[in-house]
């Protein structure tokens, strides 16, 4: 190669190699410091686009899981209220049985009646409870228990597709309907007339039914109805728990898929970093040597 002062091909080549190796070194540093394989769109535009969609899906699944957990809390509170209602009806049945004791005087029965009416107020209070402003039970008083047209549901979306995806319906439950009967359907000894409905719940003591006006069969039917409501509630909770498990598994799989695209392989990248670190230093050293080679021409002048 001719010795030239105006141009230095070796220095130009060394400079090109230095810039290339330095860029690779900076890219490796960026990946190791961020933990991401893709630090700029130019690294992998297609992979970045897929990762963005996966990240969005992961976020939606997190919200779905939170919604399902809130629905489970609602169902648990509802079940607790139904358990309390069953306890109240059981106590009412006990009071009714005790009032039938032949040795009880009218004053004794009146004392039982005071508690009996108080329990009706408590049952009415439970039937009107709510969870974060959402009522636990249907407020359709006087409706026949179990009629599909009177069932009110709470809909929970259990996938990130919203209304177009899977849903679970929780019944608000007809607690008032479960303890409301017509006299002809239970006990012919009811003294309030066959045309009237009998409700074992009252907003005020003055509106409550007297203990003497009801037969024992009313309480048996009421307990059966409440047991049906609890079974329906339990079925909804079981389905919600399965939906939560599925949502968590989906989220875990999405995160794994996103990790394969975005997360850097530290072992591999560390090796690459060491490689380009050495090459960068070598290129810088050779560029220095190449720049000094032009000075040799001065010795000939």
Could you characterize the architecture of this molecule?
The structure is a single chain. This protein is mainly alpha-helical. The protein has 2 domains: 9-35 and 265-299; 48-260, f41 fragment of flagellin, N-terminal domain, CATH 1.20.1330.10. It is built from 6 helices and 6 strands. Strands 1-2 form a two-stranded antiparallel sheet. Strands 3-4 form a two-stranded antiparallel sheet. Strand 1 and strand 2 form a beta hairpin. The two termini are 19 Å apart.
Radius of gyration over alpha carbons?
39 Å
Strand order of the largest sheet: 1-2
Compute the average pLDDT: 84
pLDDT < 50 runs, ≥5 residues: 185-195
N-to-C series of helices and strands: HHHEEEEHEEHH
Quick one: CATH superfamily of the largest domain? f41 fragment of flagellin, N-terminal domain
> What would CATH call the architecture of the largest domain?
Up-down Bundle
The percentage helix is 55-70%
Label the overall shape. rod-shaped
What structural category characterises the helix and strand content? mainly alpha
Give the terminus-to-terminus CA distance: 19 Å
Q: Could you please say which CATH topology of the largest domain applies here?
A: f41 fragment of flagellin, N-terminal domain
Question: How many extended strands?
Answer: 6
Counted by DSSP, the helix tally is 6
Strand content is 5-15%
The biggest sheet amounts to: 2 strands, antiparallel
CATH class of the largest domain: Mainly Alpha
The total tally of domains equals 2
């Amino acid at each position: 190669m001719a010795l030239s002062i105006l141009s230095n091909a070796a220095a130009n080549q060394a400079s090109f190699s230095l810039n290339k190796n330095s860029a690779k070194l900076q890219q490796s540093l960026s990946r190791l410091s961020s933990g991401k394989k893709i630090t700029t769109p130019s690294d992998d535009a297609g992979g970045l686009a897929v990762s963005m969609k996966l990240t969005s899906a992961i976020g939606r699944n997190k919200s779905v899981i939170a919604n399902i957990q809130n629905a489970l809390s609602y169902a648990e509170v509802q079940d607790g209220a139904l358990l309390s209602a069953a306890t109240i009806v059981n106590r009412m049945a006990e009071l009714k049985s005790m009032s039938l004791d032949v040795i009880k005087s009218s004053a004794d029965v009146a004392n039982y009646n005071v508690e009996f009416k108080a329990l009706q107020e408590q049952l009415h209070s439970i039937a009107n409870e709510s969870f974060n402003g959402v009522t636990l039970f249907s407020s359709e008083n006087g409706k026949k228990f179990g009629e599909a047209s009177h069932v009110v549901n709470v809909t929970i979306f259990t996938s990130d597709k919203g209304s177009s995806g899977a849903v679970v319906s929780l019944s608000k439950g007809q607690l008032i309907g479960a303890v409301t009967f017509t006299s002809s359907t239970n006990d012919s000894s009811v003294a309030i007339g066959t045309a009237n409905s009998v409700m074992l719940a009252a907003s005020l003591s003055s509106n409550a039914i007297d203990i003497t006006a009801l037969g024992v069969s009313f309480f048996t039917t009421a307990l059966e109805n409440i047991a049906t409501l609890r079974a329906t509630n339990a079925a909804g909770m079981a389905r919600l728990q399965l939906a939560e498990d599925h949502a968590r598994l989906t989220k875990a799989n999405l995160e794994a898929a996103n990790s394969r695209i975005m997360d850097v392989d530290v072992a591999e990248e560390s090796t690459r970093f060491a490689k380009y670190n050495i090459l960068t230093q070598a290129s810088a050293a050779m560029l220095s040597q190449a720049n000094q080679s032009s000075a040799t021409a001065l010795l000939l002048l």
